[in-house]
Every structure is written in C-alpha cells, then in structure tokens.
Sequence to fold (315 residues):
Amino acid sequence: MRDVRRLTYDLLILAALTLLAALAAWTPPAHAAARSPIRGARVLAPNHVRVRFTRLPTDLTPANFRFTESRAPDVPLEIQAVEPQTGDQVLLTVAARLDPAGSYLLETRDPPARRTVRPAPWALLLTAVMSAALINNFVFTRYLGLCIFFGVSKKRDTAIGMGVTFTAVMVFTAMVSWMLFTWVMVPLKLRFLQVIVFIGVVAFVVQFLDTMLRKTHAEMHRKWGIYLLIITTNCIILAVPLLNAAAGSGLAEALALALGAGLGFALALFLMSCAREKIELARVPDSFQGLPIAFALAGLFALAFMGFSGLTFLR
Fold:
C-alpha cells in the first residue's frame, strides 16, 4: 500500500506540472472592454432568460428586446412576455425551447445594448468532465478499454494504482497530442498522420512509465505485469486525442475530456474491483466462475450508470 501511495503522489505531481505547462502556453482571447447596460444574462430551461441591467429600462415591452441564436442572428426568436424581477432584473419568456448550453445574442433598443448569452466557462468545463466520467463513461457506455478493465479489476489495490496511473497518462498524453496537433500538424497540413503521431506519443509515455516503475516500484510493476504495456494500445487513451482533434477542441476542452475520461476509467476500475472481491466470497455456479460473472457485473454497472443520463449543471 505504501508503494501505491508513493506512486500516486509522483503521478499527481507529474499531472500538475503538465497542467501548469499547458496553462502557461494558453493565451486567453482578448475581449472588448466596452461597458454595456446589460450586466449579465442567463438561460433558464425550458424557455426563460434572466437579464441583469445596470439600470432597469423604462420600456419593458417585448418589442424592446431582440433575442436570437448566435449561429442565426438574422432569425429572431419570439419574446412572449417581459416580467420585472427583484432589483434590476427582468425575466424574458421566449416562445421557443432554449438550450442552457447554447449561445445566444440579446439586444435592446432602448437603451441600445447587445450581449452574448452563454454559460460560464467553468460550468461548461465541469459538465464536460462529469459527462466523460459518468454520463458517457468510456467503459460502461462506450465499451472501450475492456481488456485492462477486466484484467486489473480483480484486486482493489491494483485497481486503484492502475486508475491513478491511467488518469495521469491520459491527461499527459492528451495535452501533448493536442499541442502537437494544434501547433504542428494543423499548420503543416499533416492531419492524416494524427493516428500514427498519437500512438507514438502514448507509446513513449507508457514506455517511460514502465521503465520508471521497474526501477522505483518493482512490486507495483510485478502486480500490473503486461497490463501496463497494454495501455499503449488502450482504446480510451487513443480515442480521447482523436475526439479532441475531430471536434477542434481548445486547450480547456481537451483537458476536461482527458481528465473526465481518466477519472471515469479509474472509477469503473474501483467499483468493479470492490464487486469482484465480494464475489469471491459468494457461491457462484461453476459455469459463471471467472469472466462470465465479471461480464454480468459489468452489465449491471452499465445499467446503473444509465441513471446519470439526465445529469446537467446548466439549469
């Protein structure tokens, strides 16, 4: 257990250094500093918009407001009612159903003002992390990474160590792959090499980790055996950089997906290892010993994770 704790600290330090380097390389976009009478706006499901003003407009009729989607600014959405709220706030009722995660444009005629309405960046990133970890868990909903999942989930200690290692490798490789794709492959028009480059990055990181563990944590290296090297061809660790490249994700979105995928895989390993340790004390028929009962447990976990399908932080 001491080896697992020591390895966990080492990998957390490595992940933190990778995150700091990525954030240092990221330059936030510049925004116009112009003051607007609209202090803020937020979409409230299913069809409301709460608007905060520096001073409440005198004209609170629907004709004074114009609300459109950012991707279709020439098609206004009908505003059915405008209700004053506490303070300098009003509540708009829109005829169409609104997406809390969408981007909209709000305009007023008197006083003349315009503001983009979209969720806070932290809410979007938190939603991306939780979605990859729970709602769209790569193991229980996409059925990826099953080789390591069934091979390392027999014992809790081994599952915890592998989960921490996989998360650190996932974040590190995803950030390096994103940097190579964004700063090298896209400018040089080498997108067709992304699979080869991403596999090379993963292989280098895993080989480095394997060598380090062999020298510093021999007992953990002995427990993981071949499964550590299988990380190189793990579907999840390759799928995340490919998904980021296909979606054209920014640095924050790529980091959120990688972190969520790693945490989701670690959670799946931990839950499965706890269940399999309990199964060893149960009376399981001979025909279900080993992988058959493990597949049955994985199916039950997959059904349980379907309960997260409606989870959202954008209300």
